Amino acid sequence: MKRLLITGAAGNLGTQIRKRIGHLADSFRLADFAEITDADPADEIVQCDLGDKDAVMDMVAGCDGIVHFGGQSTEAPWSVIRNANFDGVYNLYEACREHDCRRVVFASSNHATGFYRQDQVIDDSVYPRPDGLYGVSKVFGEMIGSLYHEKFGIETASIRIGTCFPKPPNHRALTTYLSFDDLARLLERIFDVPRLGCPVIYGASANARSFWDNSNVSWLGWNPQDSAEEFRDEIEAKCEKPAIDAPDVVYQGGAFTAMGILQE
Ligand code: NAI
Ligand code: 15L
Predict the structure, then answer these.
(1) Could you tell me which of 52, 159, 139, 141 has the C-alpha nearest to residue 93?
(2) For the chain, which has fewer Cβ within 10 Å, the N-terminal or C-terminal residue?
(3) In angstroms, rounded to a whole number, what is the distance separating the alpha carbons of residues 60 and 31?
């Protein structure tokens, strides 16, 4: 790949993952509406709001692939979700169509299916059960990816990411944790396969327990190598065990399922 665009490059995943995938492209364009303070001198930087269609057109021009981490990453009032995760994702795919950018990684979320219970194991074929406006926006992003694949052949891997931080922050994340290294390994596979199509992949490391079955995407050859187990003792010492009927124990989406609709 000649040029890879990473959106949300100032954020948690944008910052961590770009340090791990430097071998995937000759050059990188890093975009965010926040300032990116630690770019490699060779990287191009674009500061733009995903809700600004003209700016997104310019951001995508000349890129062969996109890792789309940019957007609102938690529950928020409608205007925020709409701008970043609805308008922003539509603008991104329109720009891909216009500028013939053929492969996208969409950072979806486990909150697209957050109302499935933790005693169920689900795969990519289940009906979405979003647990908030944020989860709904991730379902929308996956569907836009599907539409632009069927109509225009633009390929998208939607990763329903679990919990991707330096460490699992709580008991639930012992099941949902995805390490930065395992995510980077997944991106390698996504950009390496000759034909990608439009798969939905659950993003979790090889944890002791899983809510998610990725067997329908085994052809990708992604084998996560890390596990949240190395953090279990720390979590058990640090975090109080939630009650057996707490949302964090009952639903895959945890506490998001118990939030209201946030007002402006
Ligand atoms: P983050 O919040 O640290 O990074 C998101 C970045 O997007 C920020 O730098 C922010 O400035 C930028 N952004 C937000 N609205 C924007 C707009 N309107 N225009 C331009 N840039 C905008 O989130 P994180 O953890 O890096 O997540 C990256 C992506 O992965 C997000 O889409 C999130 O929804 C998804 N994800 C992350 C998970 C995790 O555990 N880290 C779990 C599931 C999904
Ligand atoms: C997400 O989608 C969020 O982006 C992240 O901040 C975490 O809350 C994660 O899900 C999770 O479910 O742990």
Answers:
(1) 141
(2) C
(3) 10
Report CA(107)–ligand 1 centroid distance (Å): 8
Residue 59 pLDDT: 98
User: Residue range 239-262: average pLDDT?
Assistant: 97
Q: Which residues contact 188 (CB under 8 A, 6 or more apart)?
A: 21, 24
Q: What's the order of all strands across the beta sheet hosting 44-47?
A: 44-47, 27-32, 3-7, 65-68, 103-109, 155-161, 200-203
Rounded Cα gap, residues 40 and 47, in angstroms: 16
| Rounded distance from Cα 39 to ligand 2 centre (Å) | 25
Ligand 2 probe mutation, 159, 161, 179, 207, most atoms within 8 A of CB:
161
Q: What predicted TM-score, i.e. pTM, was given to this entire model?
A: 0.99
- Alpha-carbon distance of 173 to 230, in angstroms, equals 12
What's the pLDDT band for 249 if we cut at 50, 70, 90? very high
